[in-house]
Amino acid sequence: MAEARFSQDELMCSVCLDLLKDPVSIQCGHSYCKSCITGCWDQEDQKRVYSCPQCRQTFSPRPALARNTMLTDLVEKLKKTKLPADCDAGAGDVQCDVCTGRKYKAVKSCLVCQESYCQTHFDRHEEFHSRKAHKLIDATGRLQEIICQKHEKLLEVFCRTDQKCICVLCTVNEHKNHDTVSAAAQRTKKQKQLKEMQKTFQQRIQQKEKDLQQLREAVESHKVSLEKKRSLSQSQFRLTEA
Q1: Which of 23, 45, 176, 177 is the most buried (most CB within 10 A)?
Q2: CA distances from 185 to 92, 157, 159, 174 (A)
Q3: pLDDT digits (tens, 9 = 90+) for 207-220
Q4: Residue partners of 195: CB distance under 8 A and separation at least 6
């Protein structure tokens, strides 16, 4: 299993973090999807100096790209390899945002890249961002809900003035001088309030159940009393007739 995993990693494009598509190799020995390296070098046309996204070796003039037939064959074989069923994203699972075609279950979500990754793509993500670690959380399908759409930062501050979650940059501009606390502190406070409310409601329910039980006992006692009176009346009626 470890060997298969390594082989799959070796066939990943370091630009798109997906399996190589139409693999090409450049002079330094690294390989990329043809469309990925072409896009990278198109952005460097003005400088007339072209670099490898991995090792940063430079080339001039722009090298011609040659199709790597061996990698193409290996990729096709890997696509036909049956992967473990528990890697597939099922109902309720968070899907990997990088997987194309067959979607695999995401294990982590990156708050910086705003994407969720399966184990394979997460390993590649960690490799390429090893110098500056990104903020990661367990895979969630709610990334857009916890990220500030204006500043693309985590909503980790709660504005009590406007009663909404905001990011750190929001406190400098739109919410300057507002009453703010950390979202975690506000969540803890709300959870405490909810527990107190739950406790109060539970006590009320218990009191209602107690009152209901007392009412039932009173009704039953009243029935017994009426039955006794009825029996007594019938006995007195018989004595009178006699």
Answers
A1: 23
A2: 29, 9, 12, 21
A3: 999 999 999 999 98
A4: none
